[in-house]
Design a protein that fits this description.
Layout: H1 3-14, E1 20-24, H2 28-37, H3 44-55, E2 64-69, H4 71-74, H5 84-90, E3 94-98, E4 103-105, E5 113-115, H6 121-130, E6 135-142, H7 151-170, E7 174-181, H8 189-209, E8 218-219, H9 236-250, E9 257-260, H10 267-280, E10 287-292, H11 294-304, H12 311-330
Parallel strand pairs: 1-2, 1-10, 2-3, 3-6, 6-7, 7-8, 8-9, 9-10
Antiparallel strand pairs: 4-5
Helix pairs in contact: 7-8, 8-9, 9-10, 10-11, 10-12, 11-12
This protein binds 1,3-dihydroxyacetonephosphate.
């Protein structure tokens, strides 16, 4: 298969109505923090068991078309010896891999970050591909403050995201391009909108400059929401209106799918806001879906608590959340469905 055919096939498998992406690519320090919050010890074995639990959930493939894994998980096996990427594949879920190496301070830009991991990326991608990964993810973050983000951070992160995407395409891997505007702080929704528009403008400018074919990327943006310390909570209709407005201004129609991150929203908020977009704006050029980590995993992780006897209940809660988000992708979710299971 040519590289282009490979990219096209992966996009076709991942971009499906009523389906979204499970982000299960928490780095070891991040999953450890999440486990500790609910009293679970974090070691290679508990992480393996937990991710096996997620991927072996019966029926998951009806709502989830792709899973982002962490490097450790890519090499782990289920109890019966099946590699975890293969377990995903057996449910019709495309395995992918987080490939960035995390954040570091951006020199000469106090308070701002740049994402690392470009050196040797092509070689690493070839190895991940041999282990079954068909797509990748790279996350850039943007802090919001009175003078943040600045031009330097916006331009540098866009350049790095575009170089990552171009390298992925050379080896037949679909890149998820994730510019995350952080919700830390007390900024209002207006500032969130202004920043997110500027960030996305710059990202698409850089993708063009690096000759990235937009048909073969997936955008993973933030929704336009106020900072978490802001006194006013935005309702789903306002979030939908502002988010769709800037997507229309910044994202070419050649992009086939936009899969939001949840970024610290509650599971219910993340579902209701995605639903409001799809219910209110049914004729957009892209599929609007999800690529949630916390908003899909919080309920099952809290129920599981590291105990085998809780596995079935955790899987049921996980499947329910995946189903509600699938309905939100179609714009047919209703808050009354939260309890019905
Ligand atoms: P959240 O949905 O928890 O924000 O995580 C998505 C993700 O992949 C962050 O990189």
């Amino acid at each position: 298969m040519s590289v282009r055919d490979e990219l096209q096939a992966t996009i076709a498998d991942m971009v499906q109505r009523g389906k979204g992406i499970l982000a299960a690519d928490e780095s070891t320090p991040t999953i450890t923090k999440r486990f500790q919050a609910v009293g679970i010890a974090s070691n290679e074995e508990t992480r393996r068991i937990y991710r096996q639990l997620l991927l072996s959930t019966p029926g998951l493939g009806e709502f989830i078309s792709g899973v982002i894994l962490y490097e450790e998980t890519l090499g782990q096996k289920a109890d019966d010896g099946t590699p975890l990427p293969e377990l995903a594949r057996s449910q019709g879920i495309v395995p992918g891999i987080k490939v960035d190496k995390g954040l570091t301070g951006l020199a000469n830009a106090p308070g701002e970050k740049v994402t690392q991991g470009l050196d040797g990326l092509a070689e690493r991608l070839a190895g991940y591909k041999a282990q079954g990964a068909r797509f990748a993810k790279w996350r850039a973050v943007y802090a919001v403050g009175p003078d943040l983000p600045g031009r330097l951070a916006v331009q540098t992160n866009a350049e790095v995201l575009a170089r990552y995407a171009a390298i992925c395409h050379e080896v037949g891997i679909v890149p998820i391009v994730e510019p995350e505007v952080l919700i830390d702080g007390d900024h209002g929704i207006e500032q969130s909108e202004t920043v997110t528009e500027a960030v996305q403008d710059e990202v698409f400018l850089a993708l063009k400059r690096h000759r990235v074919q937009l048909e073969y990327i997936i955008l993973k943006p933030s929704m336009v929401i106020p900072g978490k310390a802001h006194p006013v909570k935005a309702d789903p209709v306002e979030v939908a209106e502002r988010t769709v407005r800037i997507l229309r201004r910044t994202v070419p129609a050649a992009v086939s799918s936009i899969n939001f991150l949840s970024g610290g929203q509650t599971p219910q908020e993340a579902t209701a806001r995605l639903n409001a977009m799809n219910a209110g704006y049914p004729h957009l050029p892209w599929l609007l879906s999800f690529s949630y980590a916390r908003a899909l995993q919080e309920p099952p992780m809290a129920l599981w608590k590291g105990e085998a006897t809780n596995a079935a209940a955790a899987q049921a809660a996980f499947l329910h959340r995946a189903k509600l988000n699938s309905l939100a992708q179609k714009g047919t979710y209703d808050v009354g469905m939260e309890q019905a299971r």
